Amino acid sequence: MLNPRLDGIFKTIFTQHTSESQLALRSFLEAILGRKIIRLKLNSNSGIKQFFEQRDVDYDISVTFDDGEQAEIEMQTFSQNYNYQLRAEYLVARLMNSIMKKGFSWKKIKKVHQISILGFISNKNDNEAFHHYVLRSPEGQILSEMLNVYFLELPKLPELTEEMIPQLNTVEKWGIFFRDADNLEKIELVRHVAETEEGIMAAFEILGGISLTQRFWLWQTKKLIKECDRRSDLEGAMEKGITEGQLAAKTEATKKMLSDGVPYEQIAKWQGLSIAEVQEIADKSNQ
């Protein structure tokens, strides 16, 4: 099986114009939100810019429900060198902002939902895999339930065994699917989990179908190699005391000098790199 935690595979499972894909998406959202969804519509996965300098945002999946509420779903497989909680807050606020129009009545505001499936641990304060956050006071009084953030942290889910399947709730079953569907040793157990939920079974069969397609495997290999390269570059930079932002700036400056025809030796001297490191950046630029 392909890796459903990679964004391209994840989107393919849930955004095809088929009844199976729509069933899977609706089932997943119903499990996370704890409510029935009659109909939903896929939106553009790019957030609307309110002004020119506003930061671009691409959502993995963005939907509007029949009652006007909106949700965006993010699959974040790898831990990044930034505060993901803050990013989630920004995304849900941006989603709310996108539905506000001039002259908009406060009475017409609908709830917005930001859902993140994480391949790493974000909240280290407890062992719960699933969290739902809303705005509240330090004493616990809820200010509003309009902005909703949900985290499903896959590493916190229990190790899957046949005996535990009847004890899992639907959110945990979806988490098991995302975490273990590409694990050859767990595939039959994941199938048994999927057989208990129609929506998960639809996702399981979609994943099985696209796993027969060579182009998806080629894409997955390139994606994983790119991530390994990024992590290797960052680890090497950290050993030299260079931050991720500084590394990115150094790399972009090197690319610009390469495009301007500056000799490798001169670039290496100016950037504090070895000739081999300059060559590596050049090779990646030409891929």
Number of strands: 6
User: Helical residue percent?
Assistant: 40-55%
Mean pLDDT, to the nearest integer, reads 84
In percent terms, what proportion of residues is strand? 5-15%
Q: Note the main sheet.
A: 6 strands, mixed
- Sequence of strands across the biggest β-sheet: 1-2-3-4-6-5
Order of helices and strands: HHEEEHEEEHHHHHHH
- Please state the CA-atom Rg, rounded to the nearest Å: 22 Å
Outline: globular
Number of domains: 2
- Structural class assignment: alpha/beta
Q: Could you name the ranges where pLDDT drops below 50 across 5 or more consecutive residues? A: 46-57
What is the end-to-end distance? 27 Å
Determine the number of helices (DSSP H or I, runs of at least 4 residues): 10
Write up what this structure looks like.
- 46% of the residues lie in helices and 14% in strands.
- With 287 residues, it is of the alpha/beta class.
- The chain has 2 domains: 7-210, no CATH class; 217-285, Arc Repressor Mutant, subunit A.
- A 6-stranded mixed sheet has the order 1-2-3-4-6-5, with helices on both faces.
- It is globular.
The gist of it:
This protein is an alpha/beta fold and 287 residues long.
Please supply descriptive tags for the structure shown above.
Arc Repressor Mutant, subunit A, alpha/beta, 10 helices, globular, 287 residues, six-stranded mixed sheet
Q: What is the topology?
A:
Elements: H1 7-14, H2 19-33, E1 40-42, E2 61-65, E3 70-76, H3 84-99, E4 112-118, E5 130-136, E6 142-153, H4 170-180, H5 187-194, H6 198-210, H7 214-239, H8 244-259, H9 264-271, H10 275-285
Helix pairs in contact: 2-6, 4-5, 8-10, 9-10
